[in-house]
Write a structure and sequence with these properties.
Blueprint: H1 2-15, H2 22-33, E1 42-49, E2 62-72, E3 75-85, E4 91-98
Length: 100
């Protein structure tokens, strides 16, 4: 549990220069919590992306995507997530899957 907390803290610091808002930072950290629990999984990079088209319909919500680059068992991969916020600033994430 402490290892996860340390990893999330490092991820938040690493995204500080790339994520533009607190909500985008929270999206990345929340998405990181949804990564598979694989021993030795290491987060290498993260970024905010354009929201997937199927999430752009509701005008009351703000949508964007997040991608997290990881290495596990010697394999590099990128997990994608859809993030959104409600007018009350509640955030949700949905896993899209492995994109690279």
């Amino acid at each position: 549990m402490i290892k996860i907390a340390i990893t999330l803290a490092m991820l938040l610091c690493a995204t500080a220069t790339h994520a533009q808002t607190a909500i985008e930072k929270l999206c990345i950290v929340t998405s990181a919590q949804d990564l598979p629990r694989v021993p030795g999984l290491e987060i290498k990079a993260s970024r905010i992306t354009i929201a997937p088209a199927e999430y752009l319909g509701n005008q009351d919500m703000k949508y964007f995507g997040a991608e997290i680059d990881v290495v596990a068992a010697g394999q590099s991969m990128t997990f994608a997530f859809a993030c959104g916020t409600s007018p009350r600033q509640q955030i949700f994430t949905r896993s899209i899957g492995i994109v690279r």
